[in-house]
Write a structure and sequence with these properties.
CATH superfamily of the largest domain in chain B: FAD/NAD(P)-binding domain
Radius of gyration of chain A: 24 Å
CATH superfamily of the largest domain in chain A: P-loop containing nucleotide triphosphate hydrolases
Radius of gyration of chain B: 25 Å
CATH architecture of the largest domain in chain A: 3-Layer(aba) Sandwich
Strand order of the largest sheet of chain B: 16-17-18-19-15-20
Number of strands of chain B: 24
Helix content of chain B: 25-40%
CATH topology of the largest domain in chain B: FAD/NAD(P)-binding domain
Helix content of chain A: 40-55%
Shape of chain B: globular
Strand order of the largest sheet of chain A: 8-9-7-10-11-13-12
Strand content of chain B: 15-25%
Number of domains of chain B: 4
Number of helices of chain A: 12
CATH class of the largest domain in chain B: Alpha Beta
Oligomer: heterodimer
Largest interface: A-B, 49 and 54 residues
Structural class of chain B: alpha+beta
CATH architecture of the largest domain in chain B: 3-Layer(bba) Sandwich
Largest sheet of chain A: 7 strands, mixed
Number of domains of chain A: 3
Chain lengths: ~425, ~650
């Protein structure tokens, strides 16, 4: 069985979260992500430090269960981490970075548990209902996201790969036909290279492996009113607000539904103030959080820079920036224009809801307009498609190998926008060439 | 009424029928003093093995099928090698995985060779007659009624393989003229369609066509550019010309198969011919356009669907209107007559239009048409009603193979005949079913496609249908399948079986010897198997790299070109082959896991409606097949595995290769 991994606890702030790994590769995963490796394999729990990429480490609790006495009946490892979604996601990212590990599908741990006889029929029926519900939800979410610019980008890649594959297949299966000429190596290189570049540019190389929704980070000086703004955007009180600077110590993440017209969702992240110095908190985890906060801004897909003065961001980011002039009700500047101040900051007031709608639209525009891969499985599929396309680029001289790689790339893209079957590829050949002696 | 008892009855003497009979005979030896075990029923025994259309065997993807049939102990490759008059490996500019061996055969000699091979088998009795109906009792086949009235006979058997080709309610069209029948001059089979319908089978109708044949003497042959075969012809079968006469021990033939022996000793057997190339012209295209209303495909006279990959000339002219010319190959059909096949102008236009098309082709101004092209419509059984063994789901013991399942091509038919013949014999012996997986053979791809896809046109094999194409090479067919054939018992205890065993043992030894040498050889500081992956690294480089590499088995002399080719191809694809094997291993548990036959898919909550409908209609045998149905997603398969998971841990299908 393939080794699978996923976050086994709800994706929200909580005291502890669990990243679960199941399969023959569970041991190898610990060997790869735990600092100093992992020795032995029995039922136990012990503390360790895990690598989270970019040189970051995190103290965690690791529990191991040897199959067949585990939940799934396979070797299982559970990494218990502080319940901060940002941390959880990075640990999962590190796990998924291990060769041969993939993201678990909806209900897959339970499905394995059932297949191995670790569950009763009644329990299994519950699992079946869960799979149906989760996959339906997944489909709905995907459909919403794919109706926008992101979807048309995916479809365009899929179409272009299918077209090139049809040309390559024509050169293989119909090389004995009068008017079929194999696609040239130059054209092949160019066509595939273009798709590879576009996929790469879609969300940036370093972020390619990361799973999760597009990340929209609220950042700015301490006490700029970020938490108040987050609650206003979410339409509920999720974060403790305080007039005291530095009241937010950990990053907090919540899913934000963008509503029509994009129907997408993003992960909204509230961070501690960034220039608050090192006095805050202390201790290993908190100092880890600080560097994570900076890292979060740097790699965010969208940064909502909150400043009571409507000022410009003071940190570097590779994402798009939406500037917000918070506490607009108190500001010296007057007028109700949505955008005012330097560089068009949006003047919002979380208290009376002024321009919150405009901000929501600006976030949607920045996130979806930037063509971001919105679901973890989309990101995984895209990353697989890209590496297969790169494989094809490395073998342009061997048509049958190129075709093999293109087929796998097309199947990966197909997991997002719908499969283009070998029959359909053949159909394209028949439509464009006169075949048949 | 006379009653005869057999183990297996094969109905139909075409390429599916003879391969089915041959495979069944291999598995059902005739005991001393006992009657034959296999009945081969055909309306005209002199038409057994006839090539109805192009007298050619193999080609792209089809060549792989022929090699696989041979590796499984079949007869098609032997007949083709014995009667080929032009051999050519297609796609040699590409990698070994997509090389497609092809041969044009002498059509008279081919049919005769097949008939000789069949006649040499004491297990097979050829019975002349038309099947009037099937005998089915309690959902199981019990035999068939042959002939009617006073000459009627009842044949009893536990397994019946039905191969109707284009004969089931066959209707031929040339222009406005319609003639009932399955092939020129031969009547169709009328009763069997009704019989199948009465049993509850859902039938469909397909169309195929054939081009006009010309008299060679009436063509200005030498004025046309030649189309040549390979300088060094390559045989389909590993048995053809494989051994030097000095090392071959003439194993005594226990039976009357002596006639086939000489055809193996030397290769090629027959004189090789040249073909000629000509083309259609603007004048012909104008004539076609002016007469489209008289073309059955366009007048509405034919409603069934023909293949897109083999369009008629009228189709080509309509669909590719911008082209002023299409290439036509003129291929001699035999050494003993002067019939020429016009490869490229299949048509059902009226005879006067066919005359115009032909005579406007360069070199053919005075060409005489010996037989006009025609289209034929025929009944088929929609293949979602069979299992990947060829057996129908509705009637136990009834197997279907060939065009009846909606396929096209001699090789596709033969492959199905092989599978159906094996399974029919196994059923008769009370043994479990046998299936090939998609990663084992093109034959496996073919059977799996048939039971998971809705056919929209006659099905033909292409290499692009095989997701494990790099594993399924023509050159390694024996390595993939001969051990399997041996364990199934397909290598009979006769001269042929012994010869195949001996050749394969030698192949394995030579391959091992060569691989041991490869493991020690280095090129430019790299291991040979790595250096050989470079695109430009050819056979000459490969052989050079192994010169002087000492081998424990005593040098590399005497290793055949075929073995060298396999060793090089293995190196070339090694990285991909490892990856594909890993994928296969990952998927195999779910792939071969059986789905219970009696599931009520409509009662499973959580399945999406389209998945429910597809599963209900196709009733897939395995989870792997379920996942390949249109409308079924991976989430649906996971749901199924949870709902049905533990209740269905039935035995995996018989697959001795595991």
């Amino acid at each position: 069985m393939e080794t699978i991994a996923a976050i086994a606890t709800p994706m929200a702030r909580s005291a502890r979260a669990v990243v679960r790994v199941s399969g023959d590769g569970a041991r190898a995963v610990l060997g790869a992500v735990v600092v100093g490796g992992w020795a032995g394999w029995r039922r136990e729990a012990r503390t360790a430090r895990v690598r989270m990429g970019d040189g970051l480490e995190m103290p965690v609790l690791v529990a191991t269960y040897a199959g067949p006495g585990s939940y799934t009946g396979e070797d299982v490892a559970e990494v218990v981490v502080p319940g901060n979604p940002r941390v959880v996601e990075r640990v999962l990212g590190a796990v998924l970075g291990v060769e041969g590990v993939r993201l678990a599908k909806a209900g897959e741990f339970s499905a394995r548990a059932y297949a191995r006889g670790r569950m009763t029929l009644e329990e299994a029926e519950g699992v079946a209902a869960l799979i149906a519900a989760e996959s339906e939800d997944d489909v709905r979410t995907a459909r919403g996201l794919l109706s926008g610019a992101t979807g048309s980008a995916y479809r365009s890649w899929s179409e272009r790969v299918a077209r090139v594959l049809a040309l390559v297949e024509a050169g293989i299966d119909f090389s004995d036909q009068e008017d079929v000429e194999a696609i040239g190596e130059e054209e092949l290189r160019q066509e595939i290279g273009e798709v590879v570049r576009e996929i790469g540019g879609h969300w940036g190389g370093a972020r390619a492996a990361r799973s999760g929704l597009a990340r929209v980070v609220l950042a700015g000086p301490p006490n700029a009113g970020k938490s108040t703004l987050m609650n206003a955007l979410l339409g509920r009180r999720r974060v403790v607000e305080s007039a005291e600077a530095g009241s937010t110590r950990d990053a907090i993440e919540e899913r934000l539904e963008l509503g029509p017209p994009t129907m997408g969702a993003v992960m909204l992240v509230d961070l501690p103030g960034l220039d608050s110095g090192s006095g805050e908190g202390g201790g290993e985890v908190s100092s880890g959080m600080r560097s994570l906060a900076e890292e979060a801004v740097r790699t965010a897909d969208v940064v909502v820079w909150c400043d009571a003065e409507g000022g410009a961001p003071s940190v570097k980011t590779s994402g798009r920036v939406v500037r917000v002039w918070t506490k607009a009700d108190r500001g010296a500047r007057s007028g109700s224009a949505a955008r005012s101040g330097e560089g068009g900051a949006i003047a919002v007031c979380a208290l009376d809801g002024r321009n919150i709608g405009a901000l929501r639209r600006a976030i949607a525009e920045a996130a979806v307009g930037g063509g971001l891969a919105a679901l973890p499985r989309h990101r995984e599929a895209l990353s697989r498609a890209r590496s297969r396309l790169e494989g094809a680029l490395g073998e342009v001289g061997q048509a049958e190998v190129v075709a093999q790689e293109l087929r796998l790339a097309l199947d990966a893209l197909g997991e997002v926008v719908g499969r283009i079957t070998p029959d359909e590829v053949l159909g394209r050949v028949f439509a464009s060439f006169c075949v048949g002696k | 009424m006379e009653v005869r008892r057999f183990e297996v009855i094969i109905i139909g003497g075409g390429h599916a029928g003879v391969e089915a009979a041959w495979a069944a005979a291999n598995l059902l030896p005739r005991e001393q003093g006992e009657p034959p075990t296999v009945a081969l029923v055909t309306s005209d025994p002199t038409k057994i093995g006839v090539m109805s259309c192009n007298p050619a065997i193999g080609g792209l993807a089809k060549g792989q099928l022929v090699r696989e049939i041979d590796a499984m102990g079949g007869l098609m490759a032997l007949a083709a090698d014995a009667t080929g008059i032009q051999f050519k490996v297609l796609n040699t500019s590409r990698g070994a995985a997509v090389h497609g061996p092809r041969a044009q055969c002498d059509k008279h000699e081919y049919a005769r060779a097949v008939q000789r091979l069949i006649a040499a088998r004491p297990e097979i009795e050829v019975i002349a007659g038309t099947v009037d109906g099937l005998i089915v009792e309690h959902g199981r086949v019990a035999g068939a009624v042959v002939g009617s009235g006073t000459t009627a006979a009842t044949l009893e058997a536990r397994a019946v393989v039905l191969t109707t080709g284009t004969f089931m309610r066959g209707l031929m069209h040339t222009g406005e003229r319609r003639t009932p029948g399955g092939r020129f001059g031969e009547a169709g089979a009328e009763g069997i369609s009704g019989s199948l319908r009465a049993l509850g089978f859902e039938l469909g109708r397909l169309k195929t066509g054939t081009p006009p044949r010309l008299r060679r003497g009436s063509i200005q042959w030498d004025s046309l550019p030649p189309a040549l075969g390979d300088e060094r012809p390559v045989a389909f079968s590993d048995l053809s010309g494989a051994s030097e006469p000095s090392t071959r021990q003439p194993t005594p033939m226990p039976r009357s198969g002596g006639e086939v022996a000489p055809s193996l000793a030397r290769f090629p057997v027959l004189a090789q011919v040249e073909c000629r190339e000509t083309r259609t012209t603007a004048a012909a295209h104008a004539a076609i356009r002016a007469n489209l209303h008289r073309a059955p495909m366009y007048s509405g006279q034919i409603e069934s669907i023909g293949p897109r990959y083999c369009p008629s000339i009228e189709d080509k002219v309509v669909r590719f209107a911008e082209r002023e010319s299409h290439t036509v190959f003129l291929e001699p059909e035999s050494l003993s007559d002067d019939w020429v096949y016009c490869n490229g102008i299949s048509t059902s236009l009226p005879e006067d239009v066919q005359d115009q098309i032909v005579r406007s082709m360069p070199g053919c101004a005075r060409a005489e048409v010996l037989r006009y092209g025609y289209a034929v419509e025929y009944d088929m059984v929609r293949p979602h009603q069979i299992l990947a063994t060829g057996m129908t789901k509705r009637v136990e013991g009834l197997f279907l193979a060939g065009q009846i399942n909606g396929t096209s091509g001699y090789e596709e038919a033969a492959a199905q005949g092989l599978v159906a013949g094996i399974n029919a014999a196994r059923l008769a012996r009370g043994e479990g079913e046998f299936m090939l997986r998609r990663d084992q053979a093109y034959i496996g791809v073919l059977m799996d496609d048939l039971v998971t896809k809705t056919p929209v046109e006659p099905y033909r094999m292409f290499t692009s249908r095989a997701e494990h194409r790099l594993l399924l090479r023509a050159d390694n067919a024996a390595d993939r399948l001969t051990p399997l054939a041996e364990s199934l018992g397909l290598l009979a205890d006769d001269w042929l079986g012994a010869h195949r065993r001996q050749e394969f043992a030698r192949r394995e030894q030579d391959l091992a010897r060569l691989r041991a040498a490869i493991a020690r050889a280095r090129v430019d500081g790299l291991p040979l198997s790595v250096a050989a992956r470079r695109t430009e690294f050819g056979m000459a480089d490969f052989r050079r790299a192994l010169v002087g590499v000492d081998s424990a088995a005593g040098g590399l002399d005497g290793i055949s070109d075929a073995i060298w080719a396999t060793a090089l191809a293995d190196c070339k694809y090694e990285a991909y082959v490892i990856r594909q094997h890993a994928e296969v291993r990952r998927a195999i548990a779910l792939e071969t896991k059986r789905l219970p036959a009696a599931v009520d898919y409509r009662a499973i909550t959580g399945l999406r409606p389209e998945a429910r409908d597809a599963l209900h209609r196709y009733r897939p045998a395995t989870f792997g097949q379920a996942g390949r149905l249109e409308g079924v997603t991976p989430a649906d398969v996971m749901l199924l595995s949870v709902v049905l998971g533990r209740g269905s841990n039935g035995a995996a299908p018989h697959s001795p290769g595991e």
